[in-house]
Write a structure and sequence with these properties.
about 210 residues; alpha/beta; Rossmann fold; 6-stranded parallel sheet; 11 helices; 6 strands; binds magnesium ion
Length: about 210
């Protein structure tokens, strides 16, 4: 079936998560939460990972005995990192704009925390997409089939008419195929493609030949 929509992943696909700045910031966040850096890493990437990606950040911070000022500091530390990353990679805006000019609907499905949602309107991504689905806002994460179906319903497109593009984190490429979408991997420094053996692009502009 001819593609009618292209759905993009966000991090390490059309924007680069600022890993270095986040590494510098983590000890400051840990300190505010009253944790050692080791405790912080265990919890952030362990029991808190799902919670911070499928719900309000306030729910996560409420687990800690923080003053309102400390909540504010943690929130602003994290927002600064996220804001730095929310910049289109070279070729992203041009590729998406060209796909739209061809009549394709453009969607986004991101596993992200609430700060992405709240910062979105002030970024250069705002207005590029017909529909955006953020995990923290909808309470679902990739590769849950429901998050793909939600995006497709919003776009008004059947799975067979949609292409998913991502770096491969969260098993998102196989997840897209399981709901009947075509998936294209993006070769990114994140190294998340794993054993993906489907189509791969090195530059987003290559999508213009593949979609
Ligand atoms: Mg990604």
């Amino acid at each position: 079936m001819k593609a009618r929509a292209v759905v993009f992943d966000l991090w390490n696909t059309i924007a680069v998560w600022p890993e270095d700045l986040w590494a510098e910031t983590r000890p400051k966040v840990a300190e505010q939460l009253g944790l050692t850096i080791e405790e912080f890493e265990t919890r952030w990437y362990g029991d808190l990972a799902q919670m911070r990606e499928i719900g309000p950040s306030g729910d996560v911070l409420a687990l800690f005995d923080l003053s309102p000022a400390a909540v504010e500091r943690v929130t602003s530390l994290r927002r600064a990192v996220t804001r730095k990353g929310l910049v289109p990679v070279p070729g992203a805006v041009e590729t998406i704009t060209t796909l739209r000019e061809r009549g394709l609907k453009i969607g986004l499905i991101s596993v992200c925390s609430e700060d992405v949602v709240s910062l979105w309107e002030e970024t250069d991504f705002h207005g590029l997409f017909d529909e955006e689905v953020f995990s923290a806002a909808v309470g679902l994460r990739k590769p849950d089939p429901r998050i793909y179906r939600l995006a497709l319903d919003l776009l008004g497109v059947e799975p067979a008419g949609a292409v998913f593009v991502g770096d491969g984190a969260n098993d998102e490429l196989a997840g897209a195929e399981r709901v009947g979408m075509r998936a294209i991997g993006v070769d990114s420094p994140s190294g998340e493609l794993g054993d993906w053996d489907g189509a791969i692009v090195g530059e987003l502009s290559e999508l213009l030949e593949l979609v």
